[in-house]
Fold:
Amino acid sequence: CAGKDFLIVLDGWDELPSELHTRSVFQKIIQFPADLEFDFSSVIVTSRPIASSDLYRFISSRIEILGFTPTEVKDYFTEALGGEAQAVQKLQDQLKECPMVEAS
Structure:
């Protein structure tokens, strides 16, 4: 039916307090298309893998986005910093000092 297609995007599921995953409007939104049998509607939920296990019963597909290789990171920094090798090295050194930032 024309005009009934829609897309809902929930970004940062893993950033919600865990009690909101099962007892909230967010959980109802995730179930919404299945409950109402909208064939042409979609819900996209972004999350880190560790917090997404409670979504598996609602999803029809799952996509994992992998991080960058060290070479890709260096290439990106080099381009973003206009080829300034010293600035690139300084940024890479700072990332190594703070692994939580490097991995996120």
About this structure: The mean pLDDT is 76.
